[in-house]
Amino acid sequence: MLGEGILKGLAETAKNFVGSFFSAERMTTVEYPEERIAPIEAARVFPFLVYDGIEWDAGLRCVACQICEKECPPKCIFIEKSKDKKPDAVGKPQFYPTRFDIDISVCMSCQICVEVCPFEAIKMDNVFELSTDDRFDGLLLDRKQLAKPNAYYHQIHPTEAAVVEARLAADRAKSDAKQTAAAIASAIKGAERPLPPPTTGGD
Amino acid sequence: MTIPAHAPEQLKNWNRPRIIEPGGDGDLLEVAMGPHHPSTHGVFRMDVALDGERVIRLKPVFGYLHRNHEKIAESVSYLASMPYTDRLDYICSLTNNWAYALAVEKLTSQEVPERAEYLRVILGELTRIQNHASSIGFLIQEMGASGTPLMYAFREREKILDLFEALTGSRMMCNYMRFGGCRVDASAAWLDAARKVVAGLPGFVDEFDQLLSSNEILMARTQGVGILRPELAVNAGVTGPMLRASGINYDIRKVDSYGIYNRFPFRVPLGDHWDVYDRFMIRMLEMRESIKIVEQALKDIPAGPVMDPKAKIRGFRPKAGEAYGRIEAPKGELGFYLISDGGPNPYRYRVRPPSLINLTVLEDMCLGSDIADVVLIFGSVDIVLGEVDR
Q1: Within an 8 Å CB–CB cutoff, is residue B2 touching chain A?
Q2: Domains of chain B
Q3: What are the pLDDT digits (tens) for B189-224?
Q4: Cis bond before residue A97 (omega within 30° of 0)
Q5: Closest Cβ–Cβ partner in B79, B167, B184 for A112
């Protein structure tokens, strides 16, 4: 019968229309600014720099190795390496970035910087409401704007952060063990060395 | 392809230029359709010469979205062009990742762990389902059914994109596959969520079928329109659902059985009228086959690593040589051709884009048809301009 297919299609749309009044599953959209769906944990929007402790300046994990700058596909990261070294979170003297800028008008949130970073210093954020009317300075983030505490990272990506934390703890334990071993070895070595002649006290 | 002697006369002359004499006493009307036209899926122009409503000449003009993808890829490392491949066919970024990863794996003789292969199949087929659903939606929208079928397709696509976001971190620019595996592992919770979504997909395809397949208006508009002869399709290098709708049994998943596709039984639907309706129907049937593949892959997926522990993702220099990796992307054969000179970036990087090559037969399909059908025929090619222009 001519028109049967059309009627079949209309029955389908009618089912959906009537169903939307009764079944919550058929309501697929939300009214965005007022209503929000829960953020997905793995979601990634623009990188930020992780720091340990309270001081963002002292706690930055970045050691200015510039691997991310080199690997970044659109080349939106600008790093200036320091001349001097200062102790990092573990206490080892390291270089630090005197300048770390990300031009987020160029960044495409591909997270390759996160993947190649050997120090777990750069991670992906999940803030997406970043529109600004300042096209140049407003979108060029410097290291102060990029720095965010480790606790924030744990808050937005709990599963991933737990894995990273375990790895860092293992690394720290390893380096601590190495240091203690070295200290013990040097102590033993020192003990084996003939003792210097006792200095006589002043008259 | 040799044409059998008993073939009808018009088939023998398939490759002669078809000259249609302008009829009547009027002049030809030249219309520039696009570059900003609702039907052009992006920025694409068709310079059409019309005699009344009949198409006499059609010249596709593209390049508005050219962004130097191949040259950029030659100047950055192998890893850094992975996110750029997302932007080729931005509807199906995961299959683009896969094809590129396959090419680099061939170049560096890299093994892929079992679990990663399964994840690739699951994601590739989910990509195919959402691409076909939305491409049918767009095709129907170009017929004038503005909204309903497209929104139904997008409703399902949304569920699949949520899965992609939960696993890869991004809905469309996934950047997920790596040379020697996949970037992150899928959790058990993600696999359960995927099973749930896939369990709902057959119902969606049934609904879509009910809504569209037997619709008289759709049949009147699409049957016998935009015929692509198999000989022309083969000679023009057309691939994918377009080629199969022209009745040629060629599916790279079957021909190459790259990855682990030989473990999945699935059928390749073929068309026998070579028209727009066949292309629509082939996509419908392929969705059903893809659902079967995903279901089986989700059932069989083994435990294990998703990344070869020996794999290096950055700072490697492949030996001098060349490699061509190709997959059956939702739109056709997507291939990446790489030449290495031993350096950290490819010496030559070439994409074989299915959209561009499928578009080359557009004029042949459109000649002699009405201007209103041009929009429809163009929609049935299923292109993404990001891939055409690169």
Answers
A1: no
A2: 78-389 (1.10.645.10)
A3: 899 999 999 998 998 898 888 888 888 888 888 888
A4: no
A5: B79
